[in-house]
Hints:
By secondary structure, the protein is an all-alpha fold. It has helices at residues 2-11, 26-30, 33-52, 59-62, 76-108, 114-132.
Amino acid sequence: MDNALLMKPAAQVKTGAANDHAPLNLQAWVAAPHTGQVLSFAFGLLFLFQCTILPLVGKAAMGGSGSPGAEPAVWAGKNQAFFLVMLLVTLATGAAAFYSKGCRRRLEGTPFPWVTAGVLALTLALLIAFLVGLLKI
Length: 137
């Protein structure tokens, strides 16, 4: 019984880093190589998906079947709302990927993310074309 009492205080001694909870260093997490890679991969997949749903708001969807007197489908407004939401999600993911790679570039001197910047510019151009109405032409 005495041995148990002697062991109890020793078991409660903190042993350093395993028990210490350091605050999350957000800058280091954002600049981590895996963060930028995962965000860029997700951005690429979202951009691909965005290109596949482009016909939902294109000329064929907004012009009807092409027959005289044909009108857009009754769900065309829902298609446009879905396209806009997905475009904003794609743009936000791309901006996060570009920011992450920019932070890593400042810390480690990695090359400029030209591909991410290019696809981000295309996504922004797609947003502008959608808002102006050029996709319906």
